[in-house]
Amino acid sequence: MGVTENKILNYFLDKGFSISTGKISDILTGSADLEIFHREKDEIHEASVAHSLYQQIDDTGARVNGENQYCSTLCNEYCSLFSINPKKNRLTVIDFLPGSQELKFLLNDKAIEYLKEKRLPKKYFDPLKQELSDELFSEKELGEKIDNIFPKIPDRYQNLISEAAAISYYKSLPPDKKIDILVFRRR
After folding, report:
1. What is the pTM of this model?
2. In angstroms, rounded to a whole number, what is the distance separating the alpha carbons of residues 87 and 181?
3. Residue 127's CB: how many other CB atoms inside 10 A?
4. Which segments within 34-144 are labelled E, that is strand?
5. What share of the chain is helix, strand, coil (3-state, %, to 5)?
6. I need a surface site. Which of 61, 64, 142, 169 has the fewest CB within 10 A?
7. Considering only CA atoms, which of 178, 157, 167, 156 is closest in space to residue 91?
8. CA-CA distances (angstroms) from residue 112 to 61, 70, 108, 118?
9. How far apart are CA 114 and CA 122, in angstroms?
10. Residue 141 φ/ψ region, left for φ over 0, alpha for ψ in the -120 to 50 degree band, beta for the rest
11. pLDDT, tens digit, for every residue of 37-75?
12. What is the chain's alpha carbon radius of gyration, rounded to the nearest angstrom?
């Protein structure tokens, strides 16, 4: 009928039915092919990044099935997009920015520059420089590679290397798929 779930709820309540908004949502989307909605969201996301000079991202806590997670919001003058994520870190942000594209990791000179800026201890640079290439890695593949190079690396340094490789990959994307300037601020 082209009306909101709230209007449907009010209709049923006026007729004496006891039903929740959640049940109405389940009825409307439970049997539907949701892929069309995911494609539409991805298309909106890509158009938003391609046509806006900026993207603002923020997050807030959210409970999902009794677990603490984070609701991230990406917005600009054209739209606002939301995503639920289990973690609140730079990798989550970088993964959210390119939309439907799977996050990849690239260990190259730009990753090394980032690690220098973030003051990764010097003892890690020589072994990492031996591994520089144009090869793209999945998160799992990069984790295994780091574990092979540095069997006893602290988690914070492994995360920093992953972050650098993710940012390096993101910066390698075509101009219409990325934002030129990324600024991360700690609160």
Report:
1. 0.68
2. 23
3. 11
4. 56-64, 67-75, 80-85, 105-106, 136-137
5. 50, 15, 35
6. 61
7. 167
8. 32, 29, 7, 10
9. 13
10. alpha
11. 788 888 888 888 778 777 788 888 988 888 999 998 888
12. 21
